[in-house]
Amino acid sequence: MSIRANLRKVAVLALAFAAALPAYAREQVTLQLKHLHQFQFAGYYAALEKGYYHDAGLDVRILEGKDGNEPERSVISGKAQFGVGSSSLLLARLAGKPVVVLGTIFQHSPNVLLVARGEGVRDLRSIVGKRVMIGSLTDELTQADELVAYLTKEGIAMSSLVRVEHSFNPGDLVRGEVEAFSAYVTNEPFFLERAGFAYDLYSPRAAGIDFYGDNLFTSENEIALHPERVRAFREASMKGWAYAMNNPEELADLIRAKYTRRHTREHLLYEARQMMPLVQPVLVELGYTNPDRWRHIANIYAELGMLPRNANFDGFLYRAGRPLHQTWLFRVALAAGVLLLGATAIHFSLLARERKRVRETIRKGERRFRTMFEEAPMGIALVDSATGEFKDINARYAQITGRSFEEVMRAGWADFVHPDDAPALRALTAGGAYGLKTTARLVRPDGSVVWIDMSLAAIETESQVHPHHLCMIEDVTEKKKSEALIWQQANFDTLTQLPNRRMFHDRVEFEIAKSRRDGLRIAILFIDLDHFKEINDTLGHHQGDLLLVEASERIRACVRATDTVARLGGDEFTVILSGLDETARSDVIAQKILDAMQAPFALGQEQAFVSASIGITLFPDDADDVDSLLKHADQAMYAAKGAGRNRFSYFTPALQVAALNRMRLTNDLRGAIKGQQLRVYFQPIVHLGTGRIHKAEALVRWQHPQRGLVSPLEFIPLAESSGLIVEIGEWVFKESARWARQWRGEHHPEFQVSVNQSPLEFQREGQGYEHWFAHLRDIGLEGSAMVVEITEGLLLDASSGVTDKLLQLRDAGVQVALDDFGTGYSSLSYLNKFDIDYLKIDRSFIRNLAPQSSDMALSEAIIVMAHKLGLRVVAEGVETAEQCALLLRAGCDYGQGYLFSPPLPAEDFDAMLRSPLVLLDGARR
Prior knowledge:
Residues 1-24, 322-338 and 918-925 have low confidence and may be disordered. The N and C termini lie far apart (151 Å). The protein contains 36 helices and 32 strands. It has five domains: 27-108 and 212-304, D-Maltodextrin-Binding Protein, domain 2 (3-Layer(aba) Sandwich); 111-207, D-Maltodextrin-Binding Protein, domain 2; 366-482, Beta-Lactamase (2-Layer Sandwich); 499-537 and 546-651, Alpha-Beta Plaits (2-Layer Sandwich), CATH 3.30.70; 663-914, EAL domain (TIM Barrel, Alpha-Beta Barrel). An eight-stranded mixed β-barrel has the order 23-24-26-27-28-29-30-31, surrounded by four helices. A five-stranded mixed beta sheet has the order 2-1-3-10-4, sandwiched between helices. By secondary structure, it is α/β, with parallel strands linked by helices. 46% of the residues lie in helices and 20% in strands.
């Protein structure tokens, strides 16, 4: 074989081996990020996951960063070959560190200053003297240089601020721990907007300080030793960035699946949207970096005294040499030119082919960028900053405005903006605030309004007469509607449209802060409608709702426009009277509300009457926080109810003492049954015709270990309000049944014991009397041994639950007595409809019983009516022989009262049954 053939064979094998190397022995390199994983570095993840690094013969490891300077340290030390850094790389270069910028990803820096929005007109100078978080206190150059330059240009010295070590937690701004907070526009605003926190955003670009954001960089040593690797890494990275910016949702899912789950998908997509005007992938080739912009940055650093004037940073920006394969081709071509006469022709042919390839690449790039512009999911427009004329728009921009392409191009940039938003936007753009991100409204031709998120970004204009800006808009109308609905539902009562409990708390806190500043009082009025439950029970909940709406309007009509009326729930309303210099004002308002409630409420074909009980408490006289004020107003309202309703009452310390006593007594009551502190007393019910005792009423008493005997009037309401009445009622029933069985066996076979049922016990849904009947069967006692006493109010509830329970009692042989008859909502139809066995005439009729008196006439009428309906009558509160005689002549069946016996402990009552009853005339039976 000839020498030439051998050489050719060797060359072919060498080329094949070189081509195979990337597939089997990829070079391992490390990329050091400057922060934790997030969408800010999406291009690098895309390059790795889509195989761009792999195709370039690279095995890339991506490391998270702990601080902004870690990439610089890692790259210079050789721990990492590539890093992501900010514009402060220029400071490092001019400090003698051999860093080289390979390409710029963020054409504009994301650094902004967030300031909590307060009352009145705010500007940046409002942070002077306030606590701020601006960069790290230990490393200002890499964390705060851009913002320091901005504040300096605005005339705000860093020494005039109270610097606090940066926590990078936006919650510190929300909680008011700091007044201002340096942040990335791509990140922290997401959390503030989710929290509903109002803030102002200040960008250094508003003062003409336009730094680059993230830059891909390496070291001079890496370029010198591995030039081809540097070129390949840069090209693959930029390809990854192009993919990431075109596929943000895919990258968001990738980041959460393979890199970090610290951020929600919503957060990552928010970051992607915010990056679009910073990266500008449609208008600027990814990785493009402008030496003039770096000169601008160097001048800013010089103004801050960080760099000398006109500093030379030659070698700082990467300039790729010719690729190695091209050098090899040229050498072959040169050698071929010496050996072969046709080398010149081949050379020019290759050059022509390369020029054609470059032109085709440029055309493809232009088509790619144009496609991205046309197909972008947001509206994009190129606008002449000086004239406001549109230079170009995409289809989505025209669609959002509701106009055709031609209509938009004939108009000016601000012509579609809502009149209320136009002045502010014109002022901002006139001032050069091209880093603006705001929410505004556009008016469509049909008059409808569309809400948009708008971003303005300055663009490179070297070849243009006027400066231009890129306007990107996104339709967020539905989002705004949803947010408004959610906010309305979260803060306002759906029935009355009044502020709800949450909004009430916020308003009180605001008024407290204002009153502390102004030295004035606040009055809180707690309003509860009297007898509202009866309206709901008799007329239905729909009519009750109508009454609540009308009541809310009457209350609002009684207060000033600056006062707040809220509905806490049910029939409870509150009023905040602010700016009071005297308490008399609250008296006047409270009385106006009481008077307004006196008028009848027209509810369709019905009329209803309610009154109101009002509790009043004052800030700062009674308390200095929302919860205490509301609690005190509630206590005062209950005092007004206890005093007879339809009145107002001021909070006093005595009410608090009484409330504490009630709370302690309720707590003691919880252990009363297990502690065997309850007792059942029995009061005889005497047959007036014979004087015999065949019936008794069971009455519960509480023997408190410290307080002694506690009156039922004191602890029964507590038992009802706490729900303990159910447990107490069960215990009383079982005790009464036990004694009834004993007295039926020892005294009389038809002896009956009456037990009282609270409305709360009787109206429990899903709870019948099956367990009572089972207990009676267990102890061998007939149902006829027991009588259940209920109040007239229960009969007003015509629900099936009430009827079913009365039928249950009848079917089991348990009789029913209507207690306190004559004091409630008496109706013959109720007595005729339900199975009632006894009427108990209330003691208020018996107390003043005398011949020819109205009470006597009413009592006689009740007795006659009851007998006509087949009911027997028990007179309560019989205390004198004269009352007994009058009732006997009127035909009353039974009497109960102190004339015969007070309530007695069970053992004493048992002893009384065993002895003859002493009648009024002294005879015995």
